[in-house]
Write a structure and sequence with these properties.
alpha/beta; repressor; three-stranded antiparallel beta sheet; seven-stranded parallel beta sheet; Rossmann fold; 22% strand; 250 residues; transcription regulation
């Protein structure tokens, strides 16, 4: 089997099974594991999959540019944002992450709600300018990919806040790979906020379910509530539920 044929076969298996086990594929094709691992490395370099120990998982498309991400799963993100916004109660202090799904939360927030919104996203803060909520904007080094503050100053500010809920965005949600994102500083920021929040609510559109990125935020079991589209695969939802996650398909 030629290299390109093998790669097409690997991508077909990934689409069909949601994962690749290098040892099993090598045995099935009568090839060495080194050959399959080399193919996986090259496919990962093209952004077509995410390598993990022993094989590969689907790569999240949510690591693209902000403009690209705005066009992915727009209806799903609107539904998630609407549901997330309905969870916020008067008087609460909540932390809203950056990203396209977080912007949908803001778009569906009751303008009259009296609460405190903490965010490290200048886009989220700006969108709340005509709302009744108090807005606390965390500063730091601007990570332009997601338009959020990261770094030492941002982490220090976060350590002094105890939000009732953290509405977190991710690029990947997987039962074994956990909650992941594409940048180490962003992962550290999300982890720090999650560690101080009373409740962690993860907002994940369908393309992020079963996918993985390079940097781990936390194990999936750390999630209190996972908000995902109504069309999310039932088997995936069952896997998360079995791990103690409250899955809300909206």
């Amino acid at each position: 089997m030629l290299t390109e044929q093998r790669k097409r076969h690997l991508l077909s298996l990934l689409k069909q099974d949601g994962r690749i086990v290098a040892k099993s594929v090598a045995a099935g094709l009568g090839l060495s594991e080194d050959t399959i691992r080399r193919d996986l490395r090259e496919l990962a370099a093209e952004g077509l999959l995410q390598r993990v120990h022993g094989g590969a998982l689907p790569a999240s498309p949510a690591v693209g540019t902000l403009a690209t991400r705005l066009s992915i799963g727009a209806a799903d993100k609107a539904a998630i944002g609407r549901y997330a916004a309905s969870m916020i109660r008067p008087g609460q202090t909540v932390f809203v992450d950056g990203g396209t799904t977080a912007m949908q939360l803001v778009n569906h927030l009751d303008h009259r709600l009296m609460a405190t919104i903490v965010t490290h996203s200048p886009l989220v803060a700006g969108a709340l300018a005509d709302h009744a909520v108090d807005v606390l904007l965390i500063g730091g080094k601007l990570f332009k990919h997601s338009m959020v503050s990261v770094g030492v100053a941002a982490l220090r500010a976060v350590s002094e806040i105890r939000p009732d809920i953290f509405f977190m965005g991710v690029t990947g949600v997987h039962p074994t790979a956990g909650l992941t994102t594409g940048d180490p500083e962003e992962a550290a920021m999300k982890r720090a906020i999650a560690d101080t929040a009373a409740e962690l609510v993860v907002m994940a559109s369908s393309e992020k379910i079963g996918a993985a990125s390079h940097f781990v935020i936390a194990p999936i079991e750390r999630t209190d509530i996972l908000i995902t589209p109504a069309g999310t695969d039932q088997d995936s939802s069952t896997q998360f539920t079995a791990l103690g996650v409250d899955v809300r398909r909206v």
